[in-house]
Amino acid sequence: MSVLSPSRCIALALAAALNTACAQGPSSEKAEKEAAMTENPAESRTLDGYTYTTKPVVAEFGPHRFAFPANYYDDQIGPAIGGGVGLTLMWPGLQAAPPGTRPTRSMADHYRAIGVLIDYVDAVPITGLLERIASTEAITPEGSVTRRDPTRRLDLRIPKPPQFGITPYAVDEKKMATYSQEYLKEFGELPIRNPQSEKDWYVERSSDGKVKTLIRCSQPENGLDGLVVEGELLVPDGARIIADCTHDIVDLNDSISMTIRYPRVLLKDWKAIEDAVRTMMARYRIR
């Protein structure tokens, strides 16, 4: 885990401030002031000569603007120079960490940090994005055998009984056997497969059957997720690797995708985590 140097912190802060000042217009001034009022402006911490605060810092996604409090950003300063917005929520409260705690975050706090990567989608239609992520069509040649890999396609997986209110989709072993024979015929060898490295997939669908939530989690090691919940802490359970989850959702109206990452032991809280991210996006949207 890297710690920002004082000069790096100051450079990032200046860049974020300049970006905010240049982008700010009279029409959004009132909204930004209202956004600022949602956090305690007096809350701050000075570390290595830089004062971390909860003051709002503007992030832009296409035509949309958000004024997230500075402590929500990964570095607790603002968007990365050159673009890219990563935010962090802390389990179990699913709020930002107090300002100035990122550079000195303990391993215990690192375990419970939930990362949120936000992107504006304009190169492809936002509609159907999650279906495309859960498919091989965009990453394999048309008509190729590899396009029919059942481990990488949601439409070739089998739905199972819901867990934690979301539907697991397992690999169809019959389809996998057929695929393996097709692969052998094409390439002269069976596909390399390690079930332990295959992701567990979970899907929530909207009322019209579209993918609304897509979660892919790495496998536990001998039944161990790597962490266990003890009160409000996540504690190592002895496994060599911490299993994690990648949780994808979209905002169709704003053409924004959100990728959330957290330890697999928190999969039980997927809905609360997703709701917290959507609430955060709505709360700090100013245009």
UniProtKB/TrEMBL annotation:
Q: Which first-to-last residue range defines the signal peptide?
A: 1-23
Domain of life (superkingdom):
Bacteria
- The name on file for this protein is Lipoprotein
Region spans: Disordered = 27-47
Query: Do you know which InterPro entries this protein is assigned to?
Result: Smlt3025-like
- Keyword annotations for this protein? Signal
Source organism per entry reads Stenotrophomonas chelatiphaga
